[in-house]
Amino acid sequence: MQKLLEQCSVWSLRQAYTEVFSEVRSHPEVVQRLERAYTLLSRDMEYSIERGDSKALLQFRIRSPHGEYTVVPSQQSCTCPDAQQGQYCKHRLAVRLLLLALKRSHQAKMARELEQSR
């Protein structure tokens, strides 16, 4: 997880959290999972997230103290028990936060480079 997280700033992770929170705030159970997903990314050293091996699909492997799960963002799927019961799990939320944060960090980097080239 560190390699992926090293590519995004604390600011971009927080901005991603704010964006997702605004979408799910009317669903308290999802907000709780979002909080856990943010903690998982920002402070929980018992979890790891890495890019999966698939060439065809963007997927992530999440290792936790309770097992290893695969998240496929394009299919909105996770192999964890919560997701299998139809819930929006913390693993999917963590991947969503990570992807949004990486996107924001990349955009900020591009803007800085553009500004410096003037």
Kindly summarize this structure in a few lines:
This protein has 118 residues and is α+β, with helices and mostly antiparallel strands. It has one domain. The protein has five helices and four strands, in the order H-H-H-E-E-E-E-H-H.
How are the secondary structure elements laid out?
Layout: H1 2-5, H2 10-24, H3 28-42, E1 48-51, E2 60-64, E3 67-72, E4 77-78, H4 81-84, H5 90-116
Antiparallel strand pairs: 1-2, 2-3, 3-4
Explain this structure to me?
The chain has five helices and four strands, in the order αααββββαα. By secondary structure, the chain is α+β, with helices and mostly antiparallel strands. The longest helix is centred in the last third of the chain and has 27 residues, at about 90-115. The protein has one domain (about 1-115). It is about 55% helix and about 15% strand. The mean pLDDT is about 85. It has a four-stranded antiparallel sheet with strand order 1-2-3-4. Helix 2 runs antiparallel to helix 3 (about 30-40), helix 2 packs across helix 5 and helix 3 (about 30-40) crosses helix 5.
